[in-house]
Amino acid sequence: MPEVVIRTSGLTKVYQETKVPVKALGGVDLEIREGEFTAVVGPSGSGKSTLLHIIGGLDYPTQGQVEVGGHHLNELNDRELIDFRLEHIGFVFQAFNLIPVLTAKENVEFIMLLQKLPAKEREARAVQLLQEVGLGDRMHNRPSELSGGQQQRVAVARALASRPQFILADEPTANLDSKAAANLLNMMAEMNQREKATFIFSTHDQRVIEKARRVITLEDGVIVSDVTKA
Amino acid sequence: MLLLIAWRNIWRNPTRSIVVIAAIAVGIWAIALTVGFINSLSDSYIRNSINYDYSHLQVHHPQFLQEPEARYSIRNSKSITEYLQHNPEVKAYSQRVLINGMIASTRASSGVQIYGINLDQEKAVTSLDSLLIEGNYFTEKPRNAILISRKLADKLKAEMRTKLVLTFQDIEGNVTAGAFRVQGIFDSPSPRLTEGGVYVRQQDLNQLLGTDTLVHEIAVLMHANTQTPAVAQELRSKYPASEIKTWEELSPELELIQEQSNLTMAILLVILMVALAFGIVNTMLMAVLERERELGMLMAIGMNRQRIFSMILMETVFLSLVGGPVGCLLGYVTVTWLGDVGIDLSAWTKGLQQYGYSTKLFPFLSIKEYILMVASVVLTAILAAMYPSYKAVKLNPIEAMRS
Ligand SMILES: Nc1ncnc2c1ncn2[C@@H]1O[C@H](COP(=O)(O)OP(=O)(O)O)[C@@H](O)[C@H]1O
Ligand SMILES: [Mg+2]
After folding, report:
1. What averages of pLDDT result for each successive group of 10 residues across chain B (403 residues)?
2. Which residues in chain A touch residue B402, judged by CB atoms under 8 angstroms apart?
3. Which terminal residue of chain A has fewer beta carbons within 10 Å of its beta carbon, N or C?
4. Where does residue A6 fall: left (phi above 0), alpha (psi -120 to 50 degrees), or beta otherwise?
5. Chain B contacts of A86, Cβ < 8 Å?
């Protein structure tokens, strides 16, 4: 069995800032193993983003534990979390993933620069990854010159570039048409194989769900089903 | 790459950046002009004070400046003038007999300093002949001719050829008097001379004093001001029995002028810098708020706060580094041009001249002042960028990305 990279137990999140406290997660126990290609699905408001944010060290749970690669995220402070995210987690968001003033290649190199990798290595890896995600000919374009699907591919390449333990993608296809969405998922699946990268993505798009090998369904902040395809 | 990002970020909103750059440039330009103008004012004051009043150096009996009495005559004046004659740095000198006394017309009287001058020497040192607005420089033969200032003439209700009586003590302490006729009326840039200086031939004064051996003051004009301290030093060691003072030591108001212009400069600088700081805070705050989502994303993927902070700071520094030199160049061109053609203030000349300034001013700036200007602008920009940078750092990544 591959190693467990993420483990949560009794994960609860209550948003207190609102007039009426909102319980976004109601005790989530979860294990994600290396190499998984997992979808977190559920209707809007079911707690997908909240779960991914906590797993990704962007937010703290109200109760319960998160363990990523043996680190207890609850114990890290704000500053430590930023460094933790840089070294251990790759992110693909729904939109605004890229720095507008940098080219595709520079965007991919940027994360490795933050990691203080040497310039040669940054450059080589950025070029290689962009070719792998099918953007070998768009490396020197800025985000505004790329389509939505292409921008998301650059984001995936950047997430891979930092050699994270896993990649979190919160509704990466939400702003894409169905063809571009399918292409992006195929590419991610390919990267999952080729780069041995662990992917966890949320979606409520049925055709995207079909691509996943494991599907975790949330409803009102609790897991109602967890199915792994053979 | 942080530098690259910062640089490119500036050009994301070119209009705004250009406005800030222009504000910085205009700020520096305005400071350059003001400082250049203030410089020209104090410079003209100093020049006038040297050329028409104190000269570069003066020699007196050590007692004379405290108690200007006839008996405090310079010892060794012959030897001193000999030395001055042979010193190549010295352009000219003027020996004076200087007596405090009273001048009276039939209508009014006034306390004055009577200058008994050697005509050629005085002309060479203070250009007294060029200051005459009426009459002439002792070209007419009659004895007991006197030159008075326009102001004194008005006070005494005197005109050309009016007879005036000078009263003073001779070396024995006896009061003596002599009648003089106005042969010229002058208008000096020196407030001191305008107030109470009158000029007569040395021989005429000597006759009344009953001696021709007195020299109370030797004024020395140099070829270049830079030589003043050296020559003063040499005179001091050669003639310890006399008091040697440079124009800086002689003119008490000079320090005041200097202090005042420094103060004015500082106040202007602060006002401009505060205005600049507000502009920069505003602009950079806008730039931060506009990019909230992007900054949130950067923090989410692992860009730490110091890096975000320095990125915003760098953008501001770039703006001021572009604006600074542009402003300096503008300032340099304008100040140099004005320094060549001069600013003619003859419209306000009355007021200015009264205080010892020229009517035409030639602004200039020293390298030190250019550096100071750019440094204070860059420093202000950095300080002003602190708040927006702090705002950027305080963003919460999730909230920032949701907005
Ligand atoms: N910052 C917040 N403050 C208050 N309530 C929130 C906040 N974020 C999410 N919620 C609430 O938590 C619940 C789960 O939201 P979310 O995790 O975004 O669900 P999903 O991503 O599945 O749409 C929703 O009811 C949502 O309104
Ligand atoms: Mg969501």
Report:
1. 86 88 87 87 85 92 91 91 94 95 93 94 92 89 89 93 92 90 91 89 91 92 92 94 91 80 84 88 90 94 94 88 88 90 72 64 85 85 91 91 79
2. none
3. C
4. beta
5. 301-304
